[in-house]
Design goal:
Structural class: alpha/beta
Strand order of the largest sheet: 3-2-4-1-10-9-11-15
Number of domains: 3
Strand content: 15-25%
CATH architecture of the largest domain: 4-Layer Sandwich
Bound molecules: fructose -6-phosphate
Helix content: 25-40%
CATH topology of the largest domain: Glutamine Phosphoribosylpyrophosphate, subunit 1, domain 1
CATH superfamily of the largest domain: Aminohydrolase, N-terminal nucleophile (Ntn) domain
Radius of gyration: 25 Å
């Protein structure tokens, strides 16, 4: 995700900005840039690529010499990674850096174009720069305030006005931003690590508050432009802890980042309430051609495929086969021209998935990659590409990559169903609107279920083995829950279609064996409950993850522990239901003394067979 920095003080501003940006590299980026006041003019240098490329460019074109400036590392959302799309962006009298997504940028851009404004980049950020310039009345705070009233979405902004060469302004809504202070100097940054080498003292900016940084120090106003006093905080983290944003492990940090990750992934792909994947090379005309779909992937990414099968078949009425990449590549699969093969991969470098994709291409299929790592091999070689915009996933156990893969699969399924005339435009809009509510629903689950999951995890520590069961989408999700638990806790676990238990697996049930049941799909809940009763009567301890509606109808004693999640559009329930399963896995690992970020024997990117 993008990183923002800013500086006002006696040091060489360009050096401070680049150095601070290196501490935000862990957030992931594809381009970088800085803008610094030099002799009262704003001088901007930016480039696609790494910070090393920016440093080379600064040497080549000359480093801006000054003491006030802003800097940025960009993780592309609107528009491809390129020099021109890199930040900072400018209007005639304003230069800004931005993290987040302006949801209504198209409307705002149309308005500005109608006023005769022209744009250089494809970014939503340039729209904000131009809007600030359009509304500029000589008073920066009033100008920012009036632009805030127009913006929808999440954002953090670092802003410089040409007429105020000794100042940097900062504002945020939902996206993170802190203001660091030291003797005679001040900073803005997306995260604490960026400022730790200069100061440990910082302020947390609240939504719509505006900070002004100048050589006199830092001041704040609220959304009514009234001056406010803020509490100074002191970071007591070391650099490593700071990169984890204060969380003890990357896994739990990444679980907490999921609401933002979903939003960042879906919002740029929605136009006028409908999915829009044109930028990814996907059009309604193209989608109409496909008669068969195969989803090929490994591990967690394959589990996304399992959810995808249920959703695509249900909505678009096209047969979907899900295949494990290491099996597919050696099986002489039936695939030919006119088929679509979807490859899902966080790293984009998984050897088996890459080989499977090459095989599918060789056999004439069209390939679509759903990938998180920018510029990875699978991303480069696929015919069509949708990036999940989860940001870098550091913990080995995949969490936010999975949830963003699900989000993309849903958008794709909605668009496909529309292309195949299986849903009306109105129904498609309704589904898209339900998807846009999922970040909030996931946040609710994180806020309300963590303590319960933490408690239940204490009951799992001594288990030798456990089962995950569910039906339909809940079964697809159980696979992911089971994998998550086993990979970080090292407890043996299996997932089963609940109705399949009686055909053999029920013989494993013995006194005290934990069975985690997922029940979010109304039409099969009574069936799942019967399966729960069967295993419970044989001594299983039942942990039930179900909707609040289901929980209300439960008879006493059916489950030993119930984790309730809010009921939302049923097709989308895996997005919220996976969260307690991830948290359960995390705390079980912790209770067993394991490092959940680096489970034994596992690698983040499996680039060998
Ligand atoms: C589990 C996990 C793995 C990966 C699998 C595929 O938490 O992370 O199962 O999902 O190794 O990796 P990618 O998605 O990089 O192809």
């Amino acid at each position: 995700m993008c990183g923002i920095v800013g500086y006002v003080g006696p040091r060489d501003c360009s050096d401070v900005l680049v150095s601070a940006l290196t501490k935000l590299e862990y957030r992931g980026y594809d381009s970088a840039g800085i803008a610094v006041f030099e002799n009262n003019e704003i001088k901007t240098v930016k480039t696609q690529g790494r910070l090393k490329d920016l440093e080379d460019k600064l040497k080549k074109v000359g480093k801006p010499e000054g003491h006030v400036g802003i800097g940025h590392t960009r993780w592309a959302t609107h528009g491809e990674p390129s020099d021109v799309n890199s930040h900072p962006h400018s209007g005639a009298r304003v230069t800004i850096v931005h993290n987040g997504i302006i949801e209504n940028y198209i409307e705002l851009k149309e308005f500005l174009v109608a006023q005769g404004r022209t744009f250089l980049s494809e970014t939503d950020t340039e729209v904000v720069a131009q809007l600030l310039d359009y509304k500029y009345n000589g008073n920066p705070l009033e100008t920012i305030d009036s632009v805030l009233a127009e913006l929808k979405g999440s954002f953090a902004l670092g802003i410089m006005f040409k007429d105020f060469p000794d100042k940097v302004f900062a504002v945020r809504r939902e996206s993170p931003l802190i203001v660091g202070v030291a003797d005679g100097e001040s900073f803005i940054a997306s995260d604490v690590p960026a400022i730790l080498q200069y100061t440990r003292d910082y302020y947390l900016l609240d939504h719509d508050e505006i900070a002004t940084l100048s050589s006199d120090g830092v001041s704040f106003v609220d959304e009514h432009l009234q001056p406010i006093e803020k509490e100074l905080k002191t970071a007591d983290w070391d650099m490593e802890a700071a990169e984890k944003g204060g969380y003890p492990h990357f896994m739990i940090k990444e679980i907490n980042e999921q609401p933002t990750a979903i939003k960042t992934t879906i919002m740029p792909r929605i136009r006028n309430g409908l999915p829009c994947l044109e930028e990814c090379g996907i059009t309604l005309e193209k989608l109409r051609e496909f008669k068969n779909i195969t989803i090929v992937a490994c591990g967690t990414a394959m589990h996304t495929g399992m959810v995808g099968k249920y959703v695509i078949e249900d909505l678009a009425r096209i047969p979907v086969t899900v295949d494990i990449a290491s099996e597919y590549r050696y099986r002489n699969p039936i695939v030919s021209e006119g088929d679509l093969v979807i490859i899902i991969s966080q790293s984009g470098e998984t050897a088996d998935s890459l080989a499977a994709m090459r095989l599918a291409k060789q056999k004439g299929a069209t390939t679509l990659a759903i990938v998180n790592a920018k510029g990875s091999s699978i991303a480069r070689e696929a015919d069509m590409l949708i990036y999940t915009l989860a940001g870098p996933e550091i913990a080995v156990a995949s969490t936010k990559a999975y949830i963003t893969q699900l989000s993309v699969v849903y958008l794709f399924a909605f668009e496909l169903a529309l292309a195949k005339d299986c849903v009306s435009e109105a129904e498609c809009r309704r589904l898209v609107s339900a998807l846009t509510k999922m970040p909030e629903a996931v946040q609710y689950v994180i806020d309300n279920c963590e303590e319960k999951c933490k408690y239940i995890a204490t009951k799992l520590v001594t288990a030798d083995s456990l089962l995950y069961i569910g039906r339909g989408l809940d079964y697809a999700l159980s696979m992911e829950g089971s994998l998550k638990l086993k990979e970080v806790s090292y407890i043996h676990s299996e997932s089963y279609a609940a109705g399949e238990l009686k055909h053999g697996t029920i013989s494993l049930i013995e006194d005290g064996m934990p069975v985690i049941s997922v029940a979010t799909q109304t039409d099969v809940i009574p069936k799942t409950i019967s399966n729960i009763v069967e295993v419970k009567s044989r001594g299983a301890k039942i942990i039930l993850v179900c909707t609040d509606a289901c929980a209300r109808g439960l008879k006493d004693g059916v489950a030993d522990y119930v984790i309730e999640i809010p009921h939302s559009e049923e097709l989308l329930m895996p997005i919220t239901a996976v969260v307690p399963l991830q948290i359960l896995a995390y705390y079980t690992a912790i209770n067993r003394g394991n490092d959940p970020d680096k489970p034994r024997n596992l690698a983040k990117s499996v680039t060998v067979e």
